[in-house]
Amino acid sequence: MKRYKWLVFGLVLIVMGANAATVSAQSFHSQTSELRSPSPGRALLYSLIVPGLGHYYIDHHHWGRGQVHLAAEAILWTALIGLNGYSNSLHNDMFTYAAEHSGTDIRNRDRRFQLAVGDFNSLQDYNDYQARARNWNEIYANGQKYYWQWDQQNSRLTYQNMNNRYDKVHQQIPAVIALMVANRVISGISAYIQVRHLKEQRVEMGLAPVTTQSGGVVAQVRIGF
User: Fold this and answer.
1) CB 46 within 8 Å of CB 23
2) Residue 55: pLDDT above 90?
3) I need a labelling partner for 158 at 20 to 30 A (CA). Which of 50, 136, 189, 223 fits?
4) CA-based angle 154:157:160, to the nearest 5?
5) DSSP assignment, residue 210?
6) β strands within 26-155, DSSP E
7) Going along the chain, which residue ranges are E strands?
8) Is 223 exposed, middle or buried (0-12, 13-18, 19+ CB in 10 A)?
9) Res. 133 pLDDT band, cuts 50 70 90
10) For residue 108, is pLDDT > 60?
């Protein structure tokens, strides 16, 4: 239930963000509608800020490619918020469970200690193992600070399983962030290329009279690409 709660919360934020992006896009379009042609640099920058916004800036009537990037951004944000919320929920459940069944508070402890609590039934078992392996630097001092003793083997295995699930979920977050960065870069490059392509295809023709030094008048034809 906690996982779905975070996903619903993420969807709400995405809808709010989409509305804000729409307002921003309309503002960008109104500011640039008076320009003679879109700028490749602006298209790139807008897409780096909000994927798809550069395509909207180029042509707000035909920006299907931009809508794909914007939809991908919304999906990735939903996944990121959901994974982050689920990860935090698992972490908090681990803290509570360890305190209840092993008698130790792992909330402000480093990751090595949290893993050690899941691998050994007690502090004594852990220190004995490290002593036999001659890992003297890995031994924890005896005392309340590092003390733990699981009430039963199944409790330790349950905590270990929670720990593994947390690691798997938490490790997915950097991958989602990398996809968000890639989506922005691809969207920006696509918008930039689209503007450059439009500029290469545009042909401007002009016909204007020019007065010569002899007093005559000739026609000048200008063709711009």
Assistant:
1) no
2) yes
3) 136
4) 155
5) E
6) none
7) 204-211, 217-224
8) exposed
9) very high
10) yes
Query: What does the block give as tokens for 107?
Result: 């909330």
**Beta-carbon contacts of residue 191 (< 8 Å; ≥ 6 apart):** 40, 43, 44, 46, 47, 54, 55, 57, 58, 66
Supply the angle between the helices 40-49 and 153-201 in degrees, to the nearest 10: 160
Of residues 104, 136, 108, 109, the one with CA closest to residue 120:
104
Count of CB atoms situated within 10 Å of the CB of 51: 29
Mean pLDDT in residue range 85-93: 94
Q: Model pTM?
A: 0.66
Q: Which residue has the tokens 């003793």?
A: 149
Nearest partner of 195 among 41, 17, 11, judged by Cα: 41
CA–CA–CA angle 36, 37, 41 (5° rounding): 135
To which H or E segment does residue 80 belong?
A: helix 64-102
Sign of torsion over alpha carbons 22, 25, 29, 30: positive
State the Cα–Cα distance between residues 173 and 151, nearest whole angstrom: 33
- Sorted by where each begins, the domain ranges of the chain are 1-102+173-201
Residue type, 11: L
SS3 assignment, position 205: strand
pLDDT band at 32 (very low <50, low <70, confident <90, very high): very low
Q: Which two tokens stand for residue 146?
A: 């590092």
**167 contact partners, CB below 8 Å, separation of at least 6:** none
Work out the pLDDT band at 214, boundaries 50, 70, 90.
low
